[in-house]
Amino acid sequence: MKRSEINRLIREASDFFGQHKFFLPAFACWQAGQWKQVGAKAEEIRRAGLGWDITDFGAGEFVKKGLTLFTIRNGVPGDVRGKTYCEKLMMVREGQVTPLHFHFAKMEDIINRGGGKLALRFFWADDKEGLDKGRPVELSSDGVVRMVAAGEVVVLGPGESVTIPQMLYHDFWAVPGHGPVMAGEVSEVNDDKTDNRFFEPLGRFPKIEEDESPAFLLCSEYP
Predict the structure, then answer these.
(1) Cα(first)–Cα(last) distance of the chain, in Å?
(2) Is the whole model's pTM more than 0.85, yes or no?
């Protein structure tokens, strides 16, 4: 991805969240010089991977396969005395797919916090980490049990959520024609280095072409 594209996507997401009255912490707007000045005082942000995260999953087609995220709070894997939870905010564009994946350790809630309609599909992982296309899926949606067939599309309107346990493959996208979705994630500690199992081999972080200076740093770039 080009740096100019990443800069634009961050500005668009920040504006979109603001339109829905969800306000990000101050470090969302820090520039490179401010990160150097704050030094060790912001070590929790660095260690926990808080902040902006733009990915095209290595596909090079962000509009079709990509996601814009901001990690608001998170613990550090293995730190039993620290935070045991994570919260993220995501801008999911119409028809833009976050590919099929599951988490080995993390349970999470995915929430439609505003905007359009969020579509999700679910498959249990089989004993070889493939798709179990015959096993139905029992979901908890805002505390209510919901049974769906493997691969059935579940649509969440604003305010609705679903709990996703470990080993449950899921992909999601904003339903075309209804606008982008401001999606939330509340979960156990997030670890993007070891806890994601994509059904198809994919890259988690983009390769960046530096065609202009970064307006804001990604969570993987802090000095």
Answers:
(1) 21
(2) yes
